[in-house]
Amino acid sequence: MPEQTYFEDVEVGMELPPIPKPVTNRKLVKYAGASRDYSEAHYDLETTTRGKWGRIIVHGMLKAGCIAQMATDFMGPNGLVLKMGSTYRAPDFVNQTMTVRARVVGKEETDDACLVSCDAWIENPEGQTTTPGQFTVALPAKDGRAAAYPAQPAVEYDRNGTMKGERLAYGDPEEWMKHIGEWWTPWVSQVERPWITAFADAVGDPNPLFRDEEYAANTIRGGIVSPPTFVEPMDADWRRFEMDAETVVAGEKSIFPMVSLNRQWTAIGAGDGYCDFHWFADIHPGDVMSGYTRWTEPYEKTGRSGTLLMTTRESVIENQHGQIVSTSKRGTVHIIPK
User: How many CB atoms lie within 10 A of CB 100?
Assistant: First the structure.
């Protein structure tokens, strides 16, 4: 059970206790169900042996969830995660143990909150950093100042979008490019306690904030809340796309859609590139969440394996009261061989 950390207790340079994360195929299947990310790359050996890595790989967002666990363990029951990001530089594989590490790199007192920033990263068994990241938490102070979320952001988004979003990845790239910037059909999710608990279990996070009503009621949250990266399954048409993807790829055993912005290019693989989240409110059991997403401009860079095409999207997650819970930006990297 995480103890309370106060702003005065923290010093720049502090190393946080590492968190070992063993990964099994069972764990990846649990995460696929809890997050609605059913890509065969994360559980089907027959599919992955034909892919770039030849092995089952860990979900990028599961690794983000592990970094979020480091943040929630550090902040204690009365702290808040305000922002977090991670970049996926190398895959992690099933039947290995990842290790999450973090270090305090900054402290700041504002008119509204006491903030602590940390660098965080995931190491594989060889000690290689596969997933660098960072997070910022608001901590209570010993003089009685409480942690608080920032004010609601001034974000413009279309609640009445009609685009079919991610499904365009299977179609004509030129058609896909025409719809950059258009908001997708909203994805509405009813949140219940079993889903929150299943998500926390899938990440491997035992924090009682996510499962113990009596414990959570005695914190600033006032009751059970979801883990920070629980907002991932709220991403708009992407999850609706996942539900019927089998009808699109049936018989092809394709891990990822073939994406190309230039008809001379064909992607040989794809995966999570990065994620960047900001939070402004909690998610509680009984909330009804609406996810609004749109594609943003893609970009390219050169990597060791060839050209890396990054397709990007941004999302706004809103609760039933019209309150923005989170905003995010995410990228998917597609490898175009030399």
Answer: 24
pLDDT at 68 over 60: yes
> What pLDDT sits at residue 19?
99
Residue reference for tokens 């206790």: 17
Instruction: Work out the pLDDT band at 258, boundaries 50, 70, 90.
Output: very low
In a domain, 185, yes or no: yes
For the segment 243-256, the average pLDDT, to the nearest whole number, is 44
Q: Report the CATH number at residue 195.
A: 3.10.129.10
Q: Which two tokens stand for residue 87?
A: 């970049």
pLDDT above 90 (res 45): no
* H or E segment to which residue 20 belongs: strand 19-23
How many Cβ atoms sit within 10 Å of the Cβ of residue 29? 15
pLDDT at residue 308, rounded to an integer: 79
Residue 156 structural domain: 7-337
Closest CA to 85 of 333, 317, 335, 327: 327
> What pLDDT score was predicted for residue 179?
84
Residue 42 belongs to some domain of the structure: yes
What pLDDT was estimated at residue 83? 98
Here the tokens at position 212 are 């113990």
| Per-residue confidence band for 233, with pLDDT thresholds at 50, 70 and 90 | confident
What is the band of 250 on the pLDDT scale with cuts at 50, 70, 90? very low
| Residue 276, domain member (yes or no) | yes
Total domains, the chain: 1
For the chain, state the CA radius of gyration.
20
CA distance 228 to 283: 9
Secondary structure, 3-state, 147-208: CCCCCCCCCCCCCCCCECHHHHHHCCHHHHHHCCCCEECCEEEECCHHHHHHHHHHHCCCCH
Does the residue 1 lie in any domain? no
CB 239 within 8 A of CB 290: no
Task: Assign 188 to helix, strand or coil.
Answer: strand
| Distance from C-alpha of 312 to C-alpha of 299, rounded to nearest angstrom | 8
